[in-house]
Design brief:
The complex is a heterodimer of chains A (about 280) and B (about 350). Chain A has about 280 residues and is α/β, with parallel strands linked by helices. Chain A folds into two domains: about 1-105 and about 195-280, P-loop containing nucleotide triphosphate hydrolases (Rossmann fold), CATH 3.40.50.300; about 110-190, Rossmann fold (3-Layer(aba) Sandwich). Chain A has eleven helices and ten strands. Chain A has helices spanning about 65-75, 95-100, 120-125, 135-140, 145-160, 180-190, 210-225, 235-240, 260-265, 265-275, 275-280, and strands at about 30-35, 40-50, 55-60, 80-85, 90, 105, 195-200, 230, 245-250, 255-260. In chain A, the strands form two sheets. In chain A, strands 6-7-8-3-9-10 form a six-stranded mixed sheet, with helices on both faces. The radius of gyration of chain A is 20 Å and the shape is globular. Chain B folds into two domains: about 50-290, ABC transporter involved in vitamin B12 uptake, BtuC; about 310-360, no CATH class. In chain B, about 75% of the residues lie in helices and about 5% in strands. Chain B is built from 14 helices and three strands. Chain B has helices at about 1-10, 10-35, 40-65, 75-90, 100-125, 130-150, 195-215, 215-225, 230-235, 240-260, 275-285, 290-310, 315-330, 335-360; strands at about 155, 160-165, 175-180. A three-stranded antiparallel sheet of chain B has the order 2-1-3, with helices on one face. The radius of gyration of chain B is 23 Å and the shape is globular. In chain B, about 45% of the residues are buried. The chains are: A alpha/beta (about 280), B mainly alpha (about 350). The interface between A and B is medium-sized, with 39 and 24 residues.
Chain lengths: ~280, ~350
């Protein structure tokens, strides 16, 4: 804990803070985050806070640096500048596994499941740090092994059931259809008991009805587990309907923050997506 | 009882494990019966213990190559550490532990532990690498280990234990014995290994590897193999689990090495060279990556095959290679697989039609 940790959420900065989040520590507090790759500045001056039970969106044109921001938040890259406070703890210098233990789980733009393992095992891998069973007791098959496995199985099945995947529990993850794989990835991320979950284009490759179901599920995840959700998405329908606060980035910099309504009418956002009007005229 | 059995049988993992254990036990029972009936030729008897050692080696390497997904070309090095540690320990304990089985067991655990410790220290630098680079580094470590054994002189006399790294440094008193004599290797070994002990070692190896695979650790190891980045993202410390697999694999290889070493009257360091590492790897690849029963079967067949063809002289290695190529084609080539499937489908078709015809005739 450091000096920042005492900063509570008092004013709804840009997102419509939910009542229950008021006066609480933000789950994610990002200050002036930036990273350079060689001479190229990929992300610069990224500031944002996310409340403990908030759904926020990160949008921007292709190559704006959205996934880079996710990689910074999960310590895949170490930032060149700035700091990330996760529940008040600075994650500087930690590796991805450590950051996950502290409470960030994520999904990937290009699905990264454990393809040769069953859906159930994928979820159980997600529960890795929760299963309390020593190396020796699993080698010798002591009673604690059976107890912890049984508990893990039950919880994993519950989670699969929650995401509507209970009937594919025994199938190999690699053989599942695309939309199901996306949901399984969310399920695996949930299994690691996160405080915030980062979804990288969760609706990519989904048809409209699957997307509609996903929107419903995202809200249900927040309401059931009381966690924050931060998502990158190109499907504006989903972003505008699900997110309570939206950050728009372009060329690695924030160009707008606000509620969906504000973002829809923000001239800078329209410019980033559609180009400037007089340029078209000229 | 039936309920428990059904529960075990319906779980795919436990079923495969049960089948693996059963195959090993049945094979042992058959061999032991043949042995006691005196049907086996003396050559066949000679293969039995090395086969056990190679099965254990193949299963332990499969943990590393098939389950963890890391290619190691230095497995014979760990086997060598085990063998020489086991030989020295067995010689030292000759008077204090008269019971041969107990002495062999102690030697095995000593050899395994030594190999595991070496595996840990080799793993610290080597496991920073991945894939081809790791393979080359393990190859180098295997060769280094082999050369160290080749220059190690260990003797035992009334004054105690003597060790040196160059010839002539070890001066023994009258009645002393060289346990390890540099490039000549270990000679005059008291042969403690027996077929039943080899069987027990295989069971032990299977117990460790199969239990590991179906536990939280095993899932983590497989997750690291399938997708390193995703494994990290759910809080798995990738290096720690690769290290665990590496050390366990080295430990088991060391134990198998002890069984192998204490089965010979003399062992030279050159036995544990690159060739042996590659042979073990061939057993694993041919048996199927991650397929434990496959490793057991292929290690048995591929060890005995070239030995049994000794009469054919130069031809035998050609035949060995042809067998490898055919097996690889039948199991991995999509077109050959396709043909095989069509043939088996046609046969099944014919059988079911025959049955139907038989049914209508009645």
């Amino acid at each position: 804990m450091n000096e920042y940790s005492r900063k509570m959420l008092k004013v709804p900065t840009y997102n419509l803070l939910r009542e229950q989040d008021m006066g609480k520590l933000p789950v994610l507090d990002v200050r002036n985050l930036g990273i350079d790759f060689g001479g190229l500045t990929a992300v610069d001056g990224f500031n944002m806070t996310i409340g403990p039970t908030e759904i926020s969106g990160l949008i921007g044109p292709n190559g704006a640096g959205k996934t880079t921001i996710f990689n910074l938040l999960t310590s895949v890259y170490q930032p060149t500048r700035g700091s990330i406070l996760l529940n008040g703890i600075d994650t500087k210098g930690m590796n991805t596994a450590k950051v996950n233990k502290l409470g960030i789980a994520r999904t990937f733009q290009n699905i990264r499941l454990f393809n040769d393992m069953t859906a159930l095992d994928n979820v159980k891998v997600g529960m890795h740090n929760e299963i309390r069973c020593s190396f020796l007791s699993s080698l010798l098959r002591l009673p604690s092994y059976y107890k912890s496995e049984k508990k893990a199985n039950e919880k994993a099945m519950e989670l699969l059931d929650f995401m509507g995947l209970a009937d594919i529990a025994d199938q190999k993850a690699g053989s599942l259809p695309y939309g199901v794989q996306r949901r399984l990835e969310i399920c695996r991320a949930l299994a690691s008991n996160p405080a915030i979950i980062l979804l990288d284009e969760p609706a990519a490759g989904m048809n409209p009805s699957e997307t509609a179901e996903l929107m419903h599920q995202i809200r249900r995840i927040r309401d059931t587990f009381h966690i924050a959700i931060f998502l990158i998405e190109h499907d504006m329908n989903l972003v505008m309907n699900v997110c309570e606060g939206i950050v728009v980035v372009n060329y690695g910099k924030i160009i707008a923050k606000g509620t969906p309504e504000e973002i829809k009418n923000d001239p800078a956002v329209i410019e980033a997506y559609l180009g400037r009007k007089n340029e078209v005229d000229a | 009882m039936k309920k428990i059995w059904n529960k075990l049988w319906n779980n795919k993992n436990t079923r495969t494990n049960l089948i693996t254990y059963l195959v090993v036990i049945v094979a042992y029972a058959i061999m032991q019966t043949l042995y006691s009936m005196g049907i086996l030729s003396s050559a066949m008897k000679g293969y039995m213990v090395p086969v056990c050692a190679y099965i254990s080696l193949a299963v332990s390497l499969n943990l590393l190559v098939g389950i963890c997904g890391e290619l190691s070309l230095g497995h014979a090095g760990f086997m060598g550490i085990g063998a020489f540690t086991g030989i020295v320990v067995a010689a030292l304990l000759e008077t204090s532990i008269p019971n041969e089985i107990l002495r062999l067991t102690v030697a095995m655990f000593a050899g395994g532990t030594m190999a595991g410790v070496f595996g840990f220290f080799i793993g610290i630098p080597a496991l920073r690498l991945r894939g081809d680079y790791l393979a080359i580094v393990t190859l180098a470590f295997g060769e280094i280990l082999k050369n160290i054994f080749g220059n190690l002189y260990i003797g035992l006399d009334a004054e105690g234990f003597h060790m040196a790294a160059s010839a002539g440094k070890v001066q023994l008193l009258e009645g002393g014995k060289m346990i390890l004599d540099g490039p000549v290797g270990a000679t005059g070994i008291n042969r403690l290994s027996t077929f039943p002990m080899g069987f027990v070692l295989i069971l032990f190896t299977l117990f460790v590897v199969l239990n590991l695979i179906n536990s939280k650790e095993g899932r983590a190891i497989k997750a690291v193999r399938d997708n390193r980045i995703a494994a990290e993202s759910v809080g798995i410390n990738v290096t720690a689990f690769r290290m665990k697999a590496f050390v366990v694999s080295a430990f088991l290889a060391g134990m198998a090495g002890v069984l192998f070493g204490l089965n010979m009257s003399s062992v030279a360091a050159s036995k544990f060279n690159f060739n042996t590492s590659i042979n073990i790897l061939v057993f694993v690849v041919l048996g199927g990556m991650g397929n434990i029963l496959g490793s057991i079967i292929s290690a048995t067949v591929l060890y005995i095959l070239p030995e049994a063809m000794r009469g054919l002289d130069d031809l035998r290695m050609i035949l060995y290679a042809v067998v490898l190529i055919i097996v690889m084609l039948c199991t991995w080539s999509p077109s050959v697989k396709n043909v095989m499937q069509r043939i088996s489908a046609a046969i099944r078709d014919k059988v079911s039609r025959n049955k139907k015809e038989a049914g209508t005739n009645e």
